[in-house]
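Raw record, unedited: D-alanine--D-alanine ligase
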Amino acid sequence: MSRISDPREFGRVAVLLGGSSSEREVSLDSGAGVLAALQRRGVEAFAIDGVPALVDAIRDGGVDRVFNILHGTRGGGEDGVLQGLLDALGVPYTGTGVLGAALSMDKIRSKQVWQALGLPTPDYRVLHPGDDVAAAAASLGLPVIVKPAREGSSVGVSRVHAPDDLEQAVALAARYDGQLLMERMIEGDEFTVAILDGVALPSIRIVPAGTWYDYHAKYVADDTQYLCPGSDGEEEQRLRALALDAFNALDVTGWGRVDVMRDRQGGFWLLEVNTAPGMTSHSLVPKAAAAVGIGYDELCWRVLEGSLDRGGRA
């Protein structure tokens, strides 16, 4: 249930989209949907492309709060940099704060926190320049996943089944800044659980037409199946509880999405948390919200309401 009914209480809302990360195009698509939804509900919302333009608008006194729908790092809004900036300027914003964003964006640090708390996440190795990647893969056991530690939307990710493919996978991941991560590949079913206002929504089981849920399956293909809820009974409750534990462990607040794998024996394994998930026509959080009767426009409103929990005014 919405907490407020008058859109004027939000003031002037900058829908922050685009940016300069590798996920720019997805963010533009997500932001267009959010902007239209807020405007349909009477919110004085307008689009701003990227952080420098946002800073200019704040300096000009034209922003009361920010709906952050930037994706990624280095000009995206999911790595804690934007959150720290807005905290310093006293401008309320949607989503999590600095620590939750920074920990979630860094898959290595996420896994370290989860392991310290006894939460299940696949074994991994951090790859440094000059490391023996074949030895790392042998220690984990093929197949493995090789990916940049601080990217999203499957950018730079490879599935490696044979030793001869390791060099190419590392070269692809190394195109992106930051550390590289090699992770034991969990073979089974992929799930995602959306979190909204401290509640885990029904899970979604993702069934791509191809061999795995890559960038094409996420944002281009129309033949990917999304089963919601993805499980039932005790298993569904166990999955939602695990996702909420993972979300809270990284100090994430507001809204987000937790990606999980189920192995062939029925065990769940945490992959990552997204703190500004996609809101495109293919995106998963709107699908989960719809399963409990929350339409797209209402979802955007509820996410924006989360900015009211942050003190400060522009």
